[in-house]
Amino acid sequence: xxxxxxxxxxxxxxxxxxxxxxxxxxxxxxxxxxxxxxxxxxxxxxxxxx
Length: 50
What we know:
With 50 residues, the protein is an all-alpha fold. It has one domain (3-44): Orthogonal Bundle (Arc Repressor Mutant, subunit A), CATH 1.10.10. The protein is built from 3 helices and no strands. The two termini are 18 Å apart. The model has no long low-confidence stretch (mean pLDDT 96).
């Protein structure tokens, strides 16, 4: 887990309904990259639900 993953988790903690696109704009990634990172975080157990 890198700093970008941690930033994504913090955004989801504050707003679990944030879109992939809005998260991407805040962390400097594309929507697809955010989607892949969130899937990896869920698969690894770092995120259980949001």
